[in-house]
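Fold this complex.
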Amino acid sequence: MRLIFVGGAIAYRALFNWTTPSMFIGTLLVGPVFQLLFFAYLGRQLGVANDGFYIVGNAVLAASALCLFGGTMAVSNERRYSTLSNVLLSPRSRTLIFLGRALPYAGNGLLVATFTLVVGKFLLNMSVPGTAWFGLILTLAAASLSAAFFGLVLGSIGLRFRDVWLISNSMVAVMILLSGTTVPRENLPAALRAIGDFLPLTHAAAAARELAGGETLANVLPGLGLEVAIGAGYAIIAAVLLKIFEYESRRTASLDTL
Amino acid sequence: MRVLRLIGIGTLMHFKTMSRGLFEIATGLIVPIIQATMAVYLLRAGDEPQNMVKAAVGAGLMGIWSSVIFGSGGAIQRQRWQGTLEMMVIAPRPLALSVLPVTIATGLQGLYTMAATLGWGWLLFGIVPDFSHPLLFLVAVPACVIGLGMFGLLLASTFVLMRNANAVCNTLEYPIWLLSGMLVPLTVLPDWTNPFAAILPTTWGARAVHEAASGGAVWPSVAACLAISAACFAAGALMMSYVERRARASATLALS
Amino acid sequence: MTDYAIEAAGLRRTYRSRTGWLRPKVKEVEAVKGVSFTVAKGELFGLLGPNGAGKTTTIKMLNTLLIPTGGHARIFGKDVVAETREVRQRIGYVFGGDRGLYDRLSGLDNLRYFAELYGIPPREQKQRIGELLELVNLTGRERERVEGYSRGMRQRLHIARGLLHRPSVLFLDEPSIGVDPVAARDLRRTVADLAATGTTVLLTTHYMAEADELCDRIAVIAQGELKALGTPEELKHHADGRTVLEVEAYGLEDETFKDIKNLHGVREATLETQGAVQLLTVQSVSDVDVQPSVLARLGGIRLGRVAARQPTLEDAYVAIVAGDRS
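Structure:
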């Protein structure tokens, strides 16, 4: 267990060392707030949904991009800096090492998502019941975690295919479209809605809206459970993919070159 | 004349480099198409389901801006990596003239995006691009591209100085989409944002393109876009020479 | 008008780097600590030194990419800080390695692009590019993308690029790095030809043979300071009064090597590993024959060839660079 946390924290610091505090605020905190405003105003203009829908939805969404990129980075940057072979040569459990890498990004995502929610609430004057906050943060945590594991899946795919950032970029856009954070899901065709059911964030976004609307935590637990289950599913997929690609790249010696 | 030739050939060369990367092309196509889809569903969900052309054009405009902002940042970063940034600096031309072709080329790349979103809307959602002024549309879009390219130059000056330029891009995507009325009309924004919107060349470029598509006087907007862009270019050129000096003093031109 | 192509006077450069996230600490490294020299017009001048000695920093201060933190420099009498544009019109810059070209463009497109950046009139461009392709032996390959070029071809394209605007001074920063021996020989011939036609060349390298063969004068730079300056012949005098002993050994321990360094009469000793063989080079004062005592230390170690010889430029270089360190 210690391996997961300590290893993850060190790797996170190492991979994020290019940023300075002002860059952190500028890019990670301010960006999602503008995204929230964009969709909130778009929603107002079109009369699609109220501000609350967008504030909560975009707070959940704020976690996604960050965690998704983080998960991708956790694997692909190791290769870019040629540290991947060192990691794979390490005698400790590789699966745990990589799952651990995703955790700090999830934590970061939770932080940003909470910040976005609070700022959104004050900027657009939304009322959130005081009792809802605990549940909301729990929901944002679940969303961050499942998004980070999803990112890890993408990162693992990146071991095999070169332009992994293309996939990650597209996935972020897909999540905006399908997870119900910005486009009300009842307006999507059934096929797209079905895909959304299996993406991270979807169930968390629904649960968060209910909480903000005054629902009790107990009543949204099933939705929250679904989100966690989806996250766990992606963690397993990521672990399996890593194993497969690791085996394959050792066989074909394509680890650092491909 | 020589300056125009430099800009022309430079733009062509940078456009060639960018068009030969699968990553850049695919990013320029896939993400905007998803965004266009989103815009269509949002518009259908809303009270105003008739104006679908606006959704496709708006998504295309957003794509051009994304291309400029990510493209310029990425291109400067890539030039730093491949050592050509130093080569641009060491040439006897003002740095602004060497970098402007980069940002214009990214705008040109955004044309893929516009074409893709319009085509996608037509094929999948049956949105026929029956523009009010089809010919003026062909004027407004290039004007918008040049405008955004010159605005990009102003931003690019910061990229030369900062090593992690791309990170800054993430923050600038949504604000400009929002403030320039690319998809959301400016009328829904709070009044205090209006002056900001009015000085952004992106606002006028987007307006010109929307007017050409859905009706309105296109030329005044085109003129305003180009005038503000020229001012941006002048400011960008000044910034660029200042930044070049700073970069030479702080040694951020090369990676090593 | 001055007689010098390059004048450097007391050039200094410090780098500041920030470490730490929340409480940044600024660390200063002095890369070049006051370097002065002059290069005459048409001279082929070598800047020789180990990696990290400050060669590239010096060259970048001279070619306007870095502003010196102290001192000043002139190219053909034009100040590198105050008259940047004038300087840039007169200089070409070529560096070693893979970088500095647009990989996704063809060699020809690269040259066309840089011809525009240097404002070469359209009428002259075609002819000039043709000439240069001929000069660097790339004719026929110019329409291929650079990403498919070999190291040597890239390096030659780089040189063609640097010569487009007929610079009066050419800065060559480690041009032969990673280039195979045949290509390196061609490269040296090209450089020699250039110098013969009156172009002033400032070459940095850490290959002794290259400097010895090409340069009219050499400056040896180490730890950011100028250690010696002169013609290759003059520099060789730094090893005067010395004899060099070369021993091929297999499995020489660090401890033994240290012992040898401390032997009476030994001035410098270097140990180079070439595959399985270690090449031990011992410089000693001529009037002490160190061979018996060195061989005594090497007892029990399998040895190959053992030979004593007269010092070369390389030995002089080792003496200059290492001599100061002890």
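The longest strand of chain C covers residues 4-19.
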